[in-house]
Specification:
Number of helices: 14
CATH architecture of the domain at 12-159: Alpha-Beta Complex
Organism: Komagataeibacter saccharivorans
Helix content: 40-55%
Low-confidence stretches: 7-25, 235-248
Structural class: alpha/beta
Family: Belongs to the ParB family.
Protein name: Nucleoid occlusion protein
Distance between the termini: 57 Å
GO molecular function, one term: DNA binding
Pfam family, one: HTH_ParB
């Protein structure tokens, strides 16, 4: 029987964004895109098939249904028009409330039409879930970053998480998709998944994935495996390193690499060059061509 991992505490994103969603102070979401509340027919509401949250805990859904039955609907769901049919709606935020209301046999739900960046709003709503699995959180983060064209540093600024935290979460997505789907269902925590993705030996990584799915892998065991690997690598005989010489040539190549990197970051379509700029670039091209011809491809 697979080990049951403990329920996750409030996500770092939820902690960082505490109170922001009520005021809609998240920088990339605009409060002006929200309209007045209305009653939407439950049978005309549809889930968004593109949303990254794939696993909905049935027990938690039952608890939400009980809460709705006792206290009523305390917060409207967010909807956007369904392009395929007038009068139908797609959920931006609030799928669990809609599912719970459907279980209760409710005919309508209080809703707000959202006409802004619904993809970002839906992803943010997913990230605010306390029970979001580590895998679903990573997938939501990646979709949010890709959708907005952000770098990791920009994402950190926009959503209030540290860049190392975002990098750590995204890194687990390098694991096989089939394994990630199972890890999401089992709610395997990120601190168990990270040591697996860091494992460079394919056979050992496969072994760790099997142990994780069977519930045998703990954080300490995974980290011990990583430590043992690092120790064995340091014990391997190494050839003496040649003396490093910071010659003018090597420094020049470093400068060229940095120059090339900066050039790739320039907005090429809007770039206007003066005659002097063009002469400088032509001179640089001639110098690089000369270096390439002298190296004979080595």
């Amino acid at each position: 029987m697979a080990r049951q991992f403990k329920a996750r505490p409030a996500s770092p994103f939820l902690t960082a964004q505490a109170g922001l969603m009520e005021k809609m102070a998240t920088p990339f979401l605009e409060s002006s895109k929200f309209h007045h509340t209305f009653e939407a027919d439950v049978d005309k509401i549809f889930p968004d098939i593109s949303q990254p949250r794939k696993v909905i805990d049935e027990n938690e859904l039952e608890q939400l249904s009980s809460s709705l039955e006792r206290h009523g609907q305390l917060q409207p769901i967010l909807l956007r028009p369904r392009p395929e049919k007038d009068g139908d709606w797609i959920i931006v935020a609030g799928e669990r409330r809609w599912r719970a209301a459907s279980q209760l046999g409710w005919s309508s739900l209080l809703a707000i039409e959202y006409s802004g960046d619904y993809a970002s709003a839906s992803l943010v709503e997913n990230l605010l879930r306390v029970d979001l699995s580590a895998v679903d959180e990573a997938r939501a983060l990646k979709k949010l970053i890709d959708h907005n064209g952000w770098s990791q540093s920009e994402a950190a600024r926009q959503i209030g998480l540290s860049q190392p935290r975002i990098n750590r979460s995204l890194r687990i997505l390098n694991l096989p998709e089939e394994f990630l789907n199972s890890a999401s269902e089992l709610r395997i925590p990120v601190n168990v998944l990270v040591p697996i993705v860091r494992e460079r030996d394919d056979a050992r990584r496969a072994e760790l994935m099997g142990q994780a799915l069977s519930g045998e892998l703990t954080v300490s065991v995974a980290n011990q495996s990583r430590s043992a690997q690092s120790l064995s690598e340091t014990e391997k005989p190494t050839e003496p390193l040649p003396r490093l010489r910071k010659s003018k040539a090597s420094l020049s190549l470093v400068a060229i690499k940095n120059f090339s990197k900066k050039c790739r970051e320039l907005p090429h379509g809007a770039l206007k060059l003066s005659v002097e700029d063009r002469n400088v670039l032509m001179d640089a091209r001639r110098t690089i061509d000369l270096l390439l011809s002298k190296s004979d491809g080595k």
